[in-house]
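Technical note accompanying the year-one report. For the benefit of new consortium partners, we illustrate the data format agreed upon in the data management plan: each record pairs a sequence with a structure-token string. No post-processing was applied to the example shown here.
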Amino acid sequence: MARIRLHEQPDYEFYYSMTLQPRDINYGGHMGHDAIVALVGAGRAYLFHSIGLSEIDLGDGRTGIIMGDMAVNFKAEGYMFDELRIETHVGEFSRNGFRIFHRVTKGETLVALAEAGFVTFDYSRGKIVSVPGTFLKALEEHGGGKLIVPGSRSGIRIC
């Protein structure tokens, strides 16, 4: 069977921890494919929140993102009440987009790798636009330390 093969990144600067809930479990008794999409989506949302931005405002008041593609490689099963760590890396920047890489682990066990490509989009004009400097600056400004998002178990670590 032909497969898309994803590779771990050298560093994952952001993370979000969560516990698998009954809604995440499929009829096979383990984490469903739809749940992993939702989990990395939550990790992405926490990433943006932790740097003071959102998926609809990358800091310039007009640019958001649109997902162009996504791939997932499952490596192990996840079960109800498992504690998962969703680690995230932003990279492969182009003029009008970038990729977000995710590693999902349960303790020392690799559960899944996921990656998605995004284009930067001005929703008011309905056009693809350049990656705003405000987004790049926000990523850069959060280097060297650890920021815990108030009220959550997520954080940021940029090496």
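Partners are asked to follow this layout when depositing records. Confidence is low (pLDDT under 50) at residues 144-159.
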